Amino acid sequence: MNDFDTVIRHGTVATACDTMQADIGIRDGRVVAIGLGLARGREEIDATGLLVLPGGVDAHCHLDQPMGEGLRMADDFLTGTRSAACGGTTTVIPFAAQEKGQSLRAAVEDYHRRAEGKALVDYAFHMIVTDPTRTVLHEELPALIEAGYTSFKIYMTYEDMRLDDRQILQLLAVARRHGALAMIHAENADCIAWLTETLEEAGHTAPKFHATSRPMAVEREATHRAIALSEVVDVPILIVHVSGREAIDQIRWAHAHGLRIYAETCPQYLFLTANDLDDGYEGAKCVCSPPPRDKANQRVVWDGLADGLFTIVSSDHAPFRFDDPQGKKPGGQEVPFQYIPNGIPGLETRLPLLFSEGVLTGRITLNQFVALTATNPARLYGLHPRKGTIAVGADADIAIWDPHREVTIENRLLHHAVDYTPYEGMRVTGWPVTTLVRGQRVWDAGQVCGQPGQGRFLPCGKPEMARPKVVDPAAGGHYVANLPDALRQLTRARHE
Ligand code: URP
Ligand code: ZN
Ligand code: ZN
To answer: What is the structure's pLDDT at 487?
Structure first.
């Protein structure tokens, strides 16, 4: 049936595996045809000379997440998803965070209220589990996984969120039994606490000492421990925001030993270094955890993107205004580094930075770019093939890029509610000129045209990538995929 609401014509279409000249026919918010010479649509988009890519899936960002006393995230679902749309991202997955003592379901319900009527792009939720009580482990978490919240984050650091190894094992066992994916923030909390005390006693409190308090060894040790815990339970995990060589070495070791460990990195580990924290109190703008490292580590992260070590690139957008008593200057003060809220903004700049410095320099291919920023995150979190690709039947979530557009990143050009970008003044080539969410323009020719509330909540499927390996005794103890019955039996035998 040649009845299209919209046809995107004459563009170069790229997915995670193909690049082709093709037109795309859209009807009722979905891609219904990919071909040459499609019939006219009611609306036509001329993509001559442009790239037509799946809209980005930013699978790690923080929006309107309740914070401790006196702190507030700058972006809610409106400003955060607006910024995402303007940077070519069409799906975001922020975090419903459980406070200690709170029911996990209450955290998820509260987060739905925060999102309601605000988002311009589609969204799913991860959960953050900080209080794995018996009720959470045996009732709430399994029920929420079944209801479409199929991933959760575990913190090994931050005093108010960290879990001990036993609690982590308990949660990994739930992930294994119920088919969810655990994301792990790997830094050694006790090392950080001791280093912080020691630095404070010596009067070293400036923002730059945030990096000193979280050296690579702290991340390396926790990364290895997380891998070991995943091995013990026999369940895949994702190590989030990997910052450099020593953590990467642990992940390479795991891969060499046949363990299914996924890895995420973020633009801050490709474009910033610890020197960016060394600028008086301005350095607070780049305080995030793990901290940015150095140029040598950046190169190792780029290598990991090129050779397939990394599964996804996310922004870890954690938005705090700089000049704000609820942001980087708590109570209006320039505070010691350990009181500076962690995180930097990056939803809108994630894709242009990676495209410009990754694809245009030849470090990664265009198809790898699509895989890392859209297809793999959609697969990892049970949203593929509806999201993360351009295929017949998929949602028409599409970013049309001008690969030649030169942009100097300036905060005044961005659409978040943060008062700075750590990438101020960086020149990039390539920017999304039109973003469609389910066939509707949300960003076009420099104008935001999406409406708050247009973005829908997406329940996630159980990700195939979260499935444990299965040992088949009949195959001489070899690991065999696709054995759902055996998998179920083994899971029961081990954990019930
Ligand atoms: O510094 C960071 N990354 N803040 C956001 C929270 C987290 O740990 O991802
Ligand atoms: Zn984290
Ligand atoms: Zn984060």
So the answer is: 46
Distance CA 301, CA 17 (A): 22
Domains of the chain: 56-380 (3.20.20.140), 464-495 (no CATH)
Say if residue 496's pLDDT is above 80: no
Could you tell me if the CB of 288 is within 6 A of ligand 1? yes
Q: What is the helix, strand, coil percentage profile of the chain, to 5?
A: 35, 25, 45
Q: What is the pLDDT of residue 492?
A: 46
Q: How far is the CA of 314 from the centre of ligand 3 (A)?
A: 9
What pLDDT, on the 0 to 100 scale, is given for residue 484?
47
Pairing of strands 51-54, 4-14: parallel
pTM of the model: 0.95
What spacing in Å lies between the alpha carbon of 80 and ligand 3's midpoint? Answer: 14
Q: For ligand 1, atom 2, which residue shows the shortest CA distance?
A: 343
Determine if ligand 1 sits within 6 Å of the CB of residue 187. no
| Res. 173: pLDDT tops 90 | yes
DSSP 86: H
Structure confidence at residue 476 as a pLDDT band (50, 70, 90): low
Instruction: Examine residue 267 and say whether the peptide bond preceding it is cis (omega within 30 degrees of 0).
Output: no
